[in-house]
Each structure stands twice: as structure tokens, then as C-alpha cells.
Amino acid sequence: MTNIKMLFILQPLIILACTLTAQSAAMTLPITNQATITPTAIACHVKTGVETGTLNLRTCAGTYCTTSTILHEGETLTQTESQTVDGWIPVRNSAGFQGWVNSKYITCPQYGTQ
User: Which CATH class is domain 42-111?
Assistant: First the structure.
């Protein structure tokens, strides 16, 4: 019986300690893979080559990354960083979704993708 009483007394303290540790760890972790807006907005357009074509906006630079939304042929995008990663360009659409698209499927004259 004393073990059960001890568990009831310690359980809230253990939960509190875990919560504080998790919050502290979350506050000290650096933010990575966050796109920043370039000083000069660079306009790009989805160009799949198909009139009703679609393009996946990905959460990171690669086909293995999750699709965050679907973009449509001709949709205007804004490049959010000047740096590309292996042919992937960080962009934002007019709805505010940010992610990565493969440069093969967009036109961005400033970076030679036409």
C-alpha cells in the first residue's frame, strides 16, 4: 500500500519535471530549415507543361519530403531564399504556404529556370 501512496504523491512531480524539461529543450533548440524572405521578391510561375498540371509544394528539398499543398499550372510563387538545394527552390504561394519546388517545373528568370 505504501508503494501506491508513493506513486500518487510522486506522479504529479514527475509529470511537472518532464513538462519543464520538454519546454526548456524546445526553447533552446535552434530553428532550422526556415525560409527567409529575400530583400527583392523574385516572381516565379508553376510550369509543368500540362494545361491542368499540378506540382507538389514540399516541406523540404526532395521528393522524399511531405507535400504541404498542391500548386497549379501558371500559379505565381515568390522565391523566399536566394540559395537553392540540388535544383530545389524555396518558395511561398499567394495563400502563404512556404516550401520547396523542383526547378524543372517552374520558371524563375533570375535563376535561369525557364
Answer: mainly beta
